[in-house]
Fold this sequence. Notes:
Elements: H1 7-14, H2 18-25, H3 33-46, H4 52-59, E1 64-69, H5 75-90, E2 94-99, H6 104-116, E3 121-124, H7 132-140, E4 144-147, E5 157-161, H8 163-176, E6 182-186, H9 192-207, E7 215-218, H10 226-231, E8 239-242, H11 245-254, E9 261-264, E10 278-281, H12 284-300, E11 308-311, E12 314-320, E13 323-327
Parallel strand pairs: 1-2, 1-3, 3-4, 4-5, 5-11, 6-7, 6-8, 8-9, 9-10
Antiparallel strand pairs: 10-12, 12-13
Amino acid sequence: MAARPTLKTVAQAVGVTANTVSLALRGSPLVAEKTKTAILAEARRQGYQHDAAAQALRCGRSRVIALAFGDIANPLFAIKIKLLAQQFAQAGYETLILNTDEAEETEVKAIRTALSRKVEGVVLCPCQKGREALELLHGQGVPCVLIGRQFDSPQEDAVVWDDRRGGYLATRQLLELGCRQPLYLTAAPSISSARLRLEGFRQALEEAGMPENGLVREVSPLGDDLGRLLDTLPKETDGVFAFNDLLAWRLMCMLKRPLPVVGFDDIQSALAAPIPLSSIHSDLEEETRLTARLLLERIEQPERPLQTLVMPVSLTVRDAWENEKTTGSR
């Protein structure tokens, strides 16, 4: 097997030092154009690949950001990951994508992997079953910005949606459709967005004079146990507000009788989907832009005050494929 090309092998072939090769590959003006051209040609001939890990050891900066999410198969998270990667690429950073399966143990392993790669920062959608992963980051002095969820006593920057408002708008939509026994299909109460959406759900019912008419059932954010819930769903249930769009779609495919359903995330604003779904919307491009900005600022200014930015939300109503409108202030 041929030896792996290195700065040294390129330098030997051209008759210069390894440091000159390194400068040439970085486009340094300190290397004469003729020499630079020869070095680049030899590097291509040998198939030389830049060793980012070695450079990180030499200069102390990896220029890598980790993006850790609970379920990267979730289209919402996939969209956010793509947009975040674009934001960081514009700032000269590569991204490492990690999946946590909404499990604390897996989340901790993911953060250990990120630390082993010497990442300069982490964007994390936390499972919120504990803070061990975040404590690992704090212990190593690695900045982190939370996206989509927040802790009651903030120790990290965060960018979140106005979940309480979203829960209110979704529930009011069901009430306007004539629902009198709506269900909120929620995730675990340890998840901040689930709790806040529940508050909005209850607020809408209370304003309508129906505080006791709401039903709340908890399922996994991934919807693995949705079938069990349907077996015990009261016959009086006449509408559903789902914690996210994936749960809403899975529910709509499994229901034995048609019900109005409102989701949360508005995935259809970015991706075509076969089932029209009314859903809570926010600006994903702005959310990811703010998230990247907060992390890059934290990397450069570790001592600046913490910030929690709340994204405004609106309700996108889809009555049919061609009929779509967005309202948010009513």
